[in-house]
Design brief:
- InterPro entries: Phage_capsid_2.
- This protein has helices at about 5-25, 95-120, 145-155, 170-175, 180-185, 185-190; strands at about 35, 40-50, 70-75, 75-85, 165-170, 200-205, 205-210, 215, 220-225, 230-245, 250-265, 270-275.
- The chain is of the alpha+beta class and about 280 residues long.
- Helix 1 (about 5-25) crosses helix 2.
- It folds into 2 domains: about 5-50 and about 70-120 and about 235-260, 2-Layer Sandwich (Major capsid protein gp5 fold); about 125-230 and about 270-275.
- Helix content is about 30%, strand content about 30%.
């Protein structure tokens, strides 16, 4: 087999896998802080405390805020997703079949990226749960829980700057559709209606989206209302593809790989909404 053909085959697959990963592989990566080009097995995300302004006397020294500085370490791990492609499948000339294989690898790595981000969410400790009606663990995702999470973010001075996000399970997305303020154009405007698409919509100053991979503990689904800067994601190696010919199998082995990690940077900026499911 010509080495030139193998090189083209590999290049095509890598381009298609990377494109598919960027398009649909991960839903959460763009909603958190993301650092690329990391060298080594870990990296650090800086965390800065709140500053306090103060007055000064005439000709006196400017007060020093003495900001608290900290670093949160993010450990990176290597992940792989591979599959065999028989030579007689003639994938090099069948674009539809090649796209299927490329998408499968990209989606597998994308789900792993989201798993890392969700695992970082799960380490948070702040929860919108109380004794008020609609906020107990026997309730689904109610308006009361959403508003409690909204209040907790505001009370903690988490910026309402367009970088707030909320991710919920599909069951909880259906429950949100029963909330008039979420689903009615009278409240959110015609352009923000969830009926226009089920991938995302803006409400309460945040981008809301459904996700099938959120953690479920017993009968409780963990949903999250968070700020983009509260979670860090790092990549030492973006999605890569290697295609190797194995003559003894008369097949190519397509290996997709990446090196990534995620970590909770600021517990203040992530609110868990436990929903009965």
């Amino acid at each position: 087999m010509s080495t030139q053909i193998d090189a083209v085959f590999t290049k095509q697959f890598q381009a298609e896998v990377h494109e598919a990963y960027q398009r649909q592989g991960s839903k959460l990566r763009k909603t958190v802080r993301s650092k690329t080009g990391v060298n080594g097995t870990s990296t650090f995300f800086p965390k800065v405390g709140k500053g306090v302004a103060a007055a000064k006397t005439r000709h006196g020294a400017v007060p020093v805020m003495n900001l608290e500085h900290a670093q949160v370490e993010c450990i990176l791990q290597d992940y792989y997703a591979g599959d065999w492609v028989d030579r007689l499948d003639e994938l090099k000339t069948n674009l539809d079949e090649r796209e299927v294989i490329a998408n499968a690898g990209a989606y597998a790595l994308g789900r792993k990226t989201d798993e890392l981000v969700i695992a970082a969410f799960d380490t948070g400790t702040r929860e919108a749960v109380g004794t008020a009606p609609g906020t107990t663990d026997t309730d689904g995702l109610t308006k009361a829980k959403v508003l409690m999470a909204f209040e907790m973010l505001g009370a903690s001075d988490v910026p309402d700057d367009g970088n707030r996000y909320a991710v919920v399970g599909w069951k909880q997305w259906s429950e949100l559709l029963e909330i008039e303020e979420f689903a009615s154009a009278d409240y959110v405007g015609a352009e923000e209606l969830p009926w226009r698409g089920t991938q995302a919509k803006r409400w309460l100053g945040a981008m809301w989206m459904p996700h099938s991979g959120l953690t479920k503990v017993g009968a409780l689904r963990y949903c999250y209302f968070y700020h983009r800067t509260a979670v860090g994601h790092a990549a030492a190696a973006e999605v890569q593809t290697d295609v190797t010919w194995h003559g003894d199998r008369a097949a190519h082995f397509i290996a997709n790989m990446m090196s990534q990690g995620a970590v909770l940077v600021d517990d203040t900026g992530v609110i868990r909404m436990r929903a009965f499911e």
